[in-house]
Amino acid sequence: MNPWESYLEVHRARSLAELEDFLRLPSVSSLPEHVDDVQRAAEWAAGRLVRAGMEHVEVFPTDGHPMVYGDWLHAGDAPTILMYGHVDVQPADPFELWVSPPFEPDIRDGRIYARGASDMKGNLLESVLGTEALLQTQGSLPVNVKFIFEAEEEIGSPHVPAFVAEHRSLLACDLAVSADGLQWGEDQPQVALGCRGLAGLQIDVRGANADLHSGLYGGAVPNPIHALAGILSSMHDPDGTVSIEGFYDGVVAVSDGERTAIAEIPFDEAAYRRSLGLAHLVGEPSYTPLERLWIRPTLEVNGIWGGFQGAGVKTVLPGEAHAKITCRLVAAQDPSRILELLTAHIERHAPDGVTVEVQPLPGLAQPYSIPRDHWGNQAADAVLTALYDKRPYYTRMGGTLPICGTFLSVLGAYTVGFGFALGDEQIHAPNEFLRLSSFDRGARAWAALLLELAERKGSTASSAISASGSGAVPG
Amino acid sequence: MNPWESYLEVHRARSLAELEDFLRLPSVSSLPEHVDDVQRAAEWAAGRLVRAGMEHVEVFPTDGHPMVYGDWLHAGDAPTILMYGHVDVQPADPFELWVSPPFEPDIRDGRIYARGASDMKGNLLESVLGTEALLQTQGSLPVNVKFIFEAEEEIGSPHVPAFVAEHRSLLACDLAVSADGLQWGEDQPQVALGCRGLAGLQIDVRGANADLHSGLYGGAVPNPIHALAGILSSMHDPDGTVSIEGFYDGVVAVSDGERTAIAEIPFDEAAYRRSLGLAHLVGEPSYTPLERLWIRPTLEVNGIWGGFQGAGVKTVLPGEAHAKITCRLVAAQDPSRILELLTAHIERHAPDGVTVEVQPLPGLAQPYSIPRDHWGNQAADAVLTALYDKRPYYTRMGGTLPICGTFLSVLGAYTVGFGFALGDEQIHAPNEFLRLSSFDRGARAWAALLLELAERKGSTASSAISASGSGAVPG
Quick check: B222 contacting A, CB < 8 Å? Predict the structure, then answer.
């Protein structure tokens, strides 16, 4: 065991206690009553960076929640790595479904249960712990590091792009690494090559100026729910293809090589269906399920409402109906252009008698893609291969990490995903948890990654760990 | 002024105070917390029948809310008239929109404001007051009368058909007259020739066994909102015609004569649209708006819900989506058959990947129609013509009065509509009110109607008031 591994081992109880402290802060960014808690979480993370030996640590105010920065820049010509995470969490309701209270961390069967355990206070702390272990045991770091933690990720990071743009010198880097992410499985690592972008809007359909009696008015007065159903049902072909004119225009076809690589990733469709309680999957027929989830754009209605929703019968002819839609986008679809196409489609399909309005939703995000053989991926591949004794799958993510597009467009830096959460950890749901084994492994992985990155910049080799040695990260 | 008119005049203050007492009882039949208030309202009405001189007054329990009965059967061979009303009211929320509290009646500008004022505690009391005035001033009534008041009208009368069937001897009659209804306008009476029936169901669409992340699952996992939108949009042609196979099969065409009569009723479509804030009306192109509202069946989605309905964006791929649908039916559509057709249509249009279930909603009701020249209508026509100095319009009602179908099928008796509410009185809405002029006029009208009915049974004449004299009811 090398010194920084021993350091992590020796300090394990303290690290776990720190994670518990961090998880006790209900830093729910979407709820105004938690604005002070979000601030406290940012300050806690800043304090932890100071204790890890970071310099220039600062909590920057924004027009929304704060940003946390800290750096260590004494590695000379070595690459500069920007390490990203977020201190905010999703709301915890419904509270009654939690076995232990969401903001009172509870360790059961080798797992720590709390809102934010998996997404992503555990992951964030791993990146700090790994960095600290190297710095404290070696007296220096092999690369220059900058930490940037936001506190608005769970609400779509509304103030982050402007902050990054305003502080582009402060945040300048050769590579970003995001601690916010997953591995494929407990025994299988992955390198994610991209994520989908996002564009969303709300449709507001209005008919009469009040809810009316469906008997007295039904038959002559337009029903906004009928209109909305017609508009929504015009958006997909029966086979699941999106039928918005121009929707697929910007899509860059994924290479046969990558499609082959995706096809080689084991995917048990029957088990997947069973776990979701589904008899069939749906979607574009000429793509496999994983391709539909990763490399193809989608349009989903996230919510719909109008009229009477209670028990029994209420014969109302509603005055309005509403729906929220988000599209997941792939390179090189432009989110703003997609909103234009959607709006034009909705206007074309709005029937007489009702008014239809469209309002963009927050969270517009560019799709993001990193070349498979990027030196950052090579470093991650080497570390993960050593750590899991297995080559990572090269995957993509169906979800959206807006920060990746922001770092690429503003800082000119790609982002490598390097998170150790797992897909079954009840992220965004009651009883969220993190495996303590992942917490330990993540901290070791981050130390190994910094060592590996120091060797890789500019390299095109795809060999395994060199200077850091495969012994650095036990399989 | 004849004696019973004087009686009504002399007792006007008392009658109004009684109406206020009645309105203070929050007899909301749909809310469990008001079950005792509904009982109290039934008992109040029973007590009022006793004071009016009725006999055999009884509050019958049912498996739901109670029924109130009372009679006066000393008119020998004269016809027996069953007088119908309901003591329950709609919920009063949203409370904050009421100018005065809904269960604290407030008289402003010749109107009494309270939940139930117009629908229909005022109307109900008018029928009792008119009967009482005759009985107290003449010592007898010209017809046999039976009062039956229910307390479930606002929740679809679930226990009323069984009660009527069980008590068919008690309720046996030559004609029913319902106090629950409207006149055309303050200066224009109407005789309603029918109302539409009702059949409703809820559609429950389920996809995955939980709400999922739309980024991680969108594209391969079926979205129940998409499925529901497709099902709902398949139910109408673009021109508003219902496209459920077989939906119009049972419809009996309304005669040219009645269509001509409807066409003669003034209907200012532009004013109607303006009042509703609409640029266009919709519906079956070969029928006028009034025909679409009265003599044609409809299918309306009353409510829809699924997924995220809050502010901002939440990228959920929902596990379920729901809608409630009711159809208004005309003679001779059968509500149960319509539910079968709807269910078959929904099953045919349910896409792969989701499960679609259908549950019937309570409130199934037969459409109802009374011959225009029925002796009950002739009596109502005569009274209304004298009272308003204007011939009534012969209209229909787009809404549903399930009791009419029940009385016809179980008791073999038609029901004449004889209510004095007006369409602008905020029925089912905040600030419901009744004009005090309608309250006074209604009481006089009921006395005149009983006198007129005594003369009309078996008659085919269409002349105006005879024995009671046109002087009985000032124009």
Answer: yes
Query: Testing the interface with B: which of A182, A272, A273, A282 to mutate, by most B Cβ within 10 A?
Result: A282
First to last CA, chain A: 13
- Residue A67 included in any domain: yes
Q: Write out chain A residues lying below 8 Å of B233, CB-based.
A: 226, 229-230, 232-234
In a domain, A273, yes or no: no
| pLDDT class of B45 with cuts at 50, 70, 90 | very high
Asked if residue B282 belongs to a domain, the reply is: no
Task: Please enumerate in sequence order all residues whose Cβ is within 8 A of that of B138, keeping only pairs 6 or more positions apart, or say none.
Answer: B3, B4
Overall number of domains in chain B: 2
Tell me which chain A residues have a C-beta less than 8 angstroms from the C-beta of B208. Answer: 276-278
Question: Looking at beta carbons, which residues of chain A come within 8 Å of B322?
Answer: 309
CB-CB: which of B300, B314, B323 is closest to A214? B300
Q: Which of A204, A221, A273 to mutate to test the interface with B (most CBs of B within 10 A)?
A: A221
Q: Which of B360, B375, B403 is the last residue of a domain?
A: B360
Helices (H), A155-313: 160-166, 214-217, 224-233, 256-264, 269-276, 289-294
Would you give the distance in Å from CA A123 to the centre of its chain?
Answer: 12
User: Residue A286: inside a domain, yes or no?
Assistant: no
Q: What is the CATH number of the domain that holds A235?
A: 3.30.70.360
Interface test with B, best of A97, A226, A348 (most B CBs within 10 A): A226
In the stretch 111-150 of chain A, residues with CB closer than 8 A to chain B read none
- Contact of B436 with B110, CB cutoff 8 Å: yes
What is the predicted pLDDT for the residue at A458?
Answer: 62
* Pair (A243, A138) in one structural domain: no
Query: Among A172, A197, A392, which residue's Cα sits nearest to residue A294?
Result: A197
Contacts of B220 in chain A (CB under 8 A): 281-283, 289, 292-293
Of A214, A300, A353, the CB nearest to B280: A353
B208–A278 C-beta distance less than 8 A: yes
Q: Are residues A348 and A409 in the same domain?
A: no
Q: What is the mean pLDDT of residues B177-196?
A: 95
CB atoms A306 and B303 under 8 Å = yes
Kindly state whether residues B323 and B205 are assigned to the same domain.
yes
- What is the C-alpha separation between B334 and A243, in angstroms, rounded? 39
pLDDT digits (tens, 9 = 90+) for A394-449: 999 898 888 999 999 999 999 999 999 998 999 888 999 999 999 999 999 999 99
Of A307, A340, A360, which residue constitutes the final position of a domain?
A360
What does the angle CA A149 – CA A151 – CA A152 come to, to the nearest 5 degrees?
Answer: 125
Q: Does A293 touch chain B (CB under 8 A)?
A: yes
Q: Are residues B27 and B118 in the same domain?
A: yes
Residue A325 shares a structural domain with residue A397 = no
Cβ contacts below 8 Å, chain A against chain B, sum to 286
Residue B416, both tokens: 């004449």
3-state helix, strand, coil in chain B (%, to 5): 35, 20, 40
Residue B465 has pLDDT above 60, yes or no: no
Return the bridge partners of A316, or none.
A213
A314 vs B302: CB contact, 8 Å cut-off? yes
pTM, entire model = 0.85
Domain that holds residue A305: 197-251+297-360
**Residue length of chain A:** 475
